[in-house]
Amino acid sequence: MTSEAVRDLMLYGMLMVSAAGFYAMFYALGRMLERPSIVTFSYLFAALQALGALGMILPNYLDPFWKYLIAFSSLVYLFVPQGMWWVVTTFHEKEHAL
Amino acid sequence: MTQALPQGRLYESQKLALWYFWVALALFGAQVLFGLLAAWQYLDPNFLYGKLNFMTNRMLHINAMIVWLLLGFMGGVYWFLPLELGREVVGIRLARFAFFTLIAAVGIVVLVYLLVQYGPGNAFTLWLITEGREYIEAPRWADLGIVAVMAIFLYNVVATALKAQRITGVVAVLMFDLVALAGLYTAGMHYTPNISMDQYFWWWVVHLWVEATWEVLVGSIMAMALMHLLGTPRRIVETWLYLEVALVFGTGILGLGHHYFWIGTPEYWLGLGGFFSALEPIPLVAMVVHAVYDAGMHRMHTVNQPALFWAIAQAFGNFIGAGVWGFMQTLPQINLYSHGTQLAPAHGHLAFFGAYVTAILTVIYMALHQVRRPELARFDSKLWKWAFVLMVVGIFGMSAAMTVSGFTQTMVERAIGGSTWQAYIDAQQHPWFQNGMVWRFVFGVFFLVSYLLLLWDLVTIGKGEARAVKGVGAHDQ
Asked: Which of A63, B112, B131, B310 is the most buried (most CB within 10 A)?
């Protein structure tokens, strides 16, 4: 592993997870405020998250096991906000209906 | 819903909880002060040399943190437990005894750290001065005391639940967690001359204790807090609590394997630990959605704004500190280079602050609200906002500065220099490292100021309209 590889992996890793968090935050905010523009804005962070993952996967730094793991994580992050939003709203609706 | 006492009245357990909170806050101040001294010694190694050495300041900084967070958690449980179970805590005298014993023990240990500091490295030192294990340096007698106090704490929770003939989901999780909390700490007292085995058990205490049992403990406390702060239905908070426990067991415990990379454990821990650690941020991202939903549902309106803000900071802080800063260095390929650099304290500062400090401050503001203002009256001040903002800026500033320094160490000392002694010196003298240390100190001063504002706010908030708090006698039960 070269020093450049260590640097790139760290920075792309940071980008990947922090962008996933911003994606989740803006997505939930957009749905909460019923503002489709904010939801659309959140997709920018989804793209950044995927870009971070690609930055770790495309170069030859990691073995296939780790590349698959990061690809899987990145794929999950893309659907976490929608899935979680569905879970939270459904759960709360059911609870308040009781 | 839980049964509360009439307005203005407190359970004895809640009065004791207030003691826990104030002592915890005092130790929080000690943590900040000793941290600042250690930060200055990075810039001027001769400062207080021979009087209050760097190792002593660092040890007091870290151990003060562990003790004050533990006191804050215990205070939180003693505050909510009678509300949760609808009766006074059974062993309240025992609880008081444990509190004062713990405080006396902490005082003695601190004095020994300050005045004696270290010994010849034999049984005398181990039992009476320091065990020398990073983060859990307490001498053996104090270790046993901590386990005894936790056992009393566990007894109080279990006995109260049995007496009340009511075991809620939160209390059940709490009971199981406290067994692990008391039990796992004993691993830190395991003595073996084999350094790998020694380190193996040491990691258990540091990580299974702090990252697993503390996470569940703070989850239980926040569950009780959210029911009272936002009126969130019990079924919802308990479901989330079970989910959190499942996630801690699902990814957290095996994810701790990333700490086993360097202690002579079999190679499969690289894959196992790395795999589960890489998945750890996923539930934290999911929690961000839930936090936004909860805050949005209530339109940020509650009578206790400071508690709400600290509760929201907890959800985001946990994600950023544990999730982002954790993932950045969790893959074994990176950890090989970043381990033990300033990146580790950057992650630690953000994670501890985000997950635990914010939670305890939420509970303290809620407790003070009940003590000082009617339940539905607004509990607010101008000062808390300043303290909140400055404290968040301070912790982020410190962590960012340490990240820059740690990044320099990772590159210059490890990746380029190959971890030689000269490479270590080169990294220490690199301008990026040194500037990072300067900014860490500057933001440390920032943090100290915010701590003083927070303390002043906690002392004064709601006091203008203070009312007498009457105790609850045995006849009231």
From this structure: B310
Residues 6+ apart with CB under 8 A from B417: B423, B424, B426, B427
Number of neighbouring beta carbons within 10 Å of residue B149:
20
Taking alpha carbons only, the member of B80, B96, B75, B93 closest to residue B27 is B75
The packing angle between helices B140-164 and B92-115, to 10°, is 160
Calpha distance B225→B220 (Å, rounded): 9
Interface test with chain A among B236, B251, B289, B336, by most A beta carbons within 10 Å? B289
A–B: how many Cβ contacts below 8 A?
116
How far apart are the CA of B313 and the nearest CA of chain A, in angstroms? 13
Nearest alpha carbon to residue B24 among B59, B95, B74: B74
Structure tokens at B37: 């001294």
Give the relative orientation of helices B92-115 and B12-43 as an angle to the nearest 10 degrees: 20
Cross-strand partners of B77: none
For residue B281, count other CB atoms closer than 10 A to its CB. Answer: 26
Phi, psi for residue B329 in degrees, rounded to 5: -130, 20
Of B247, B225, B246, nearest to B237 by C-alpha is B225
pLDDT digits (tens, 9 = 90+) for B60-109: 999 999 999 999 999 999 999 999 999 999 999 999 999 999 999 999 99
Three-state secondary-structure class, residue B171: helix
Instruction: Identify the CA nearest to B329 among candidates B259, B378, B385.
Output: B259
CA dist B122 and A59 (Å) reads: 52
Q: Quick one: tokens of A63?
A: 């073995």
Complex ipTM more than 0.85, yes or no: yes
- pTM for the whole structure: 0.92
Please judge whether A89 and B279 are an interchain contact, meaning their C-beta atoms are less than 8 angstroms apart.
Answer: no
- C-alpha distances (whole Å) from B175 to each of A62, B49, B67, B157, B182 are 43, 46, 20, 7, 11
Closest CA to B128 of B150, B143, B107, B149: B143
Task: Determine whether the interchain pair B327/A13 forms a contact, defined as Cβ–Cβ distance below 8 Å.
Answer: yes
Cβ atoms B138, B60 nearer than 8 A? no
Mind listing the pLDDT tens digit for each residue in B250-306? 777 777 777 777 777 888 888 888 888 888 888 888 888 988 888 787 666 788 999
Nearest to B239 by CA among B290, B282, B192: B290
- Closest-CA distance of chain B to residue A29, Å: 6
The span from the CA of B352 to the CA of B344, in Å, is 12
CA distances from residue B151 to B167, B175, B356 in whole angstroms, order as listed:
19, 11, 22
Q: Which two tokens stand for residue B443?
A: 């933001």
Within a 10 A sphere around the Cβ of B302, how many other Cβ atoms?
Answer: 18
